[in-house]
């Protein structure tokens, strides 16, 4: 079996690689990544790519057809990964996250790939009332990143067939320790603040709802999606991936961190403009379709693994939001050094 993982050198990729190597020990795992964050290794004794058989470097906007020869399944993680980057590079986000994704899917179908797993997002629900969003709820994407996910799902749907199964996994907000750690994610940010300065600074009023999922559980869901039968969800499936217990208001999430890391103070910006990116999510369909691949890592475990990991690297940077742990800062540095252009292409 051959499995291609795009974007394998990002935050989620190392966990996916580890999971797939364990589940498919004899598979040929192929990585494809542009390498923006290749150097963002966090306290690991080995490169995550050592578990990959073949590593390609390239731009999704010029994906080589020949890489797909003999590939059975694709895990498509590659994307401009968050709202701050998407807001700054909106056209690039649409090119990479949307247009390149559809191009890859078309090439994959032509090459005989049978399973295409797309890392989608619950962020497409945008602003919602207090009722939990299901897969049939109205989509209300508020950012370039969220819009790219909606557009991709829409154009992937007609490509699905009996011989080309497509699984769109609408992931909750990622969290947890990674061999390529990011701190520009809500739980990771809060734990970093607690470790560095014993203070969590909430930039919003703390009221928005967010569903969360540990990256290890994201990897387990991807494992399931690769091998699921079409009878279990259809040739095209869009499903919310996460846990009902992990729907949190931001202020309560901060309190959970403070409960684990003693002595942590919480500061809420009560004068902040309302954050309309607020949504709770229903995960009943995922429970039915993937009963043996449900999230296992608890919120407390996720907080403790982040705490232990940051302590192990001597993390003390109270100004971490200006550091290389934030993906936008890395891209800005690459631009400042004239290593990438305004379209985020290597020069």
What does this structure look like?
With 347 residues, the protein is α/β, with parallel strands linked by helices. The chain has a single domain (2-336), classed as NAD(P)-binding Rossmann-like Domain (Rossmann fold, 3-Layer(aba) Sandwich), CATH 3.40.50.720. Helices cover 34% and strands 17% of the residues. The chain has helices at residues 13-23, 83-88, 90-111, 144-156, 186-197, 215-227, 250-260, 284-289, 299-312, 327-336; strands at 2-6, 28-33, 54-57, 73-76, 115-121, 165-171, 173-175, 199-202, 209-214, 236-241, 247-249, 265-268. The strands form three sheets. A seven-stranded parallel β-sheet has the order 3-2-1-4-5-6-10, with helices on both faces. Helix 1 (13-23) links the parallel strand 1 (2-6) and strand 2. Helix 1 (13-23) crosses helix 6 (215-227) and helix 3 (90-111) packs parallel to helix 4. It is globular. The mean pLDDT is 95.
Q: Tell me the number of structural domains.
A: 1
Unreliable stretches, pLDDT < 50, 5 or more residues? none
- The CATH class is Alpha Beta
Largest sheet: 7 strands, parallel
Instruction: Write the CATH homologous superfamily.
Output: NAD(P)-binding Rossmann-like Domain
Radius of gyration: 19 Å
């Amino acid at each position: 079996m051959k499995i291609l993982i795009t974007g394998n050198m990002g935050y989620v990729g190392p966990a996916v690689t580890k999971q797939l190597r364990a589940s498919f020990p004899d598979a040929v795992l192929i990585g494809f990544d542009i390498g923006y964050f290749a150097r963002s290794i966090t306290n690991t004794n080995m490169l995550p790519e050592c578990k990959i058989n073949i590593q390609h470097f390239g731009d999704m906007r010029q994906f080589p057809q020949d890489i797909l020869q003999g590939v059975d399944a694709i895990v498509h993680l590659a994307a401009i990964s968050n709202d701050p980057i998407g807001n700054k590079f909106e056209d690039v986000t649409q090119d990479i996250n949307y247009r390149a994704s559809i191009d890859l899917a078309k090439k994959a179908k032509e090459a005989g790939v049978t399973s295409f797993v797309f890392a989608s997002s619950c962020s497409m629900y945008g602003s919602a009332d207090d009722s939990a969003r299901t897969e049939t709820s109205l989509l209300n994407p508020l950012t370039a990143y969220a819009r790219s996910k909606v557009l991709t799902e829409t154009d992937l749907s007609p490509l699905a067939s009996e011989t080309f199964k497509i699984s769109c996994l609408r992931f909750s907000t990622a969290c947890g320790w990674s061999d390529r750690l990011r701190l520009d994610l809500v739980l990771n940010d809060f734990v970093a603040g607690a470790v560095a300065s014993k203070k969590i600074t909430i930039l919003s009023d703390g009221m928005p709802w967010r569903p969360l999922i540990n990256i290890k559980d994201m990897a387990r869901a991807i494992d399931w999606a690769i091998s699921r039968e079409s009878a279990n969800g259809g040739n095209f499936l869009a499903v919310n991936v996460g846990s009902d217990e992990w729907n949190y208001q931001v202020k309560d999430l901060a309190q959970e961190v403070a409960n684990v890391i003693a002595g942590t103070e919480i500061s809420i910006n009560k004068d902040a403009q309302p954050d309309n990116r607020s949504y709770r999510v229903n995960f009943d369909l995922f429970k039915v379709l993937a009963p043996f691949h449900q999230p296992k890592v608890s919120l407390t475990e996720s907080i403790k693994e982040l705490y232990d990991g940051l302590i192990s690297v001597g993390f003390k940077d109270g100004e971490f939001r200006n550091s290389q742990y934030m993906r936008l800062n890395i891209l800005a540095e690459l631009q400042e050094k004239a290593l990438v252009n305004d379209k985020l292409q290597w020069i």
